[in-house]
Amino acid sequence: MPAARWPSRLWIVRHGQSAGNVARDLADAAGAERIDVSGRDVDVPLSAMGEEQARGLGRWFAGPSKSGAVDARPEIVLVSPYLRARQTAELFRAEGGCDPALSLCHDERLREKEFGILDGLTGAGIRALQPDQAEFRRLLGKFYHRPPGGESWCDVIFRLRSLMDTVALHHGGQRVMIVAHQVVVLCLRYIIEGLSEEEILAIDRAGDVANCSVTEYAFDPTASGDGGLTLVRYNAVAAVEESAAPVTSAPDAVVAARG
């Protein structure tokens, strides 16, 4: 990708804590097989804590522009169509994180990883109710395992490569923010940094991506010979901490109709 087609700055943000995250924590603590959330995963909203995390993120980004410094807020905001991500972006914008007139660009390629027949199940539920899938996942690993009706990490990466081509084509030299989900954050790191399966799974094992955390890249004209994006920070939670909202990090809950 020619240097002129890279964003000048790229922020990747996980949505705030969702009602599904809370329900999953309760199900895991109780040893339940199913997560007690009804409806589609796409419609799961933020929790009250998640709303405050999103507001804190907006205030944190608004700080430089409000103090009279050069505006370092995003010029483009790309958002997963899932409700929890859209609410995060809307609250971020309402608190001055970007221009209040900026349109939020919803892009279905940023949606959560689809879990197929595993929707609504905890880890214990998968082992009890879908033992064949639990064994396939153990053998293949999460990078390649695709549950019936769902996606593997490779499937997510395939659609995100297309998304990054769109970013390159239309947003070169601009400040771009992506608001999406934990697996999306990790898979974008895999693409942008050219990581291996082993490297990205090691990052995943080190800890969950925190809600409303920021992963940031800056364009470096010396990177990769002709310029590229260089990681500035990963899973940074300063905005949440400064907002006085608790930092939360848990796997995105699998909470579709069977949940």
Class based on secondary structure composition and strand pairing: alpha/beta
- The overall pLDDT average reads 90
Form type: globular
Largest sheet: 6 strands, mixed
Radius of gyration: 18 Å
Alpha-carbon distance between the two ends: 42 Å
Helix run count: 9
Low-confidence segments: 254-259
User: What portion of residues belong to β-strands?
Assistant: 5-15%
Record field, number of beta strands = 6
SSE string: EHHEHEHHHEHHEEH
Percent of residues in helices comes to 40-55%
Written overview of the protein:
This protein is of the alpha/beta class and 259 residues long. Helices cover 40% and strands 14% of the residues. The protein is built from nine helices and six strands. A six-stranded mixed beta sheet has the order 3-2-4-1-5-6, sandwiched between helices. α2 (48-66) packs parallel to α3 (83-94), α6 (153-170) crosses α7 (182-193) and α7 runs antiparallel to α8. The N and C termini lie far apart (42 Å). The model is unreliable at 254-259 (pLDDT under 50).
Question: Could you outline the blueprint of secondary structure elements for this entry?
Answer:
Blueprint: E1 9-14, H1 19-30, H2 48-66, E2 76-79, H3 83-94, E3 104-106, H4 123-129, H5 131-140, H6 153-170, E4 175-180, H7 182-193, H8 197-205, E5 214-220, E6 228-236, H9 238-242
Parallel strand pairs: 1-4, 2-3, 2-4
Antiparallel strand pairs: 1-5, 5-6
Helix pairs in contact: 2-3, 4-5, 6-7, 7-8
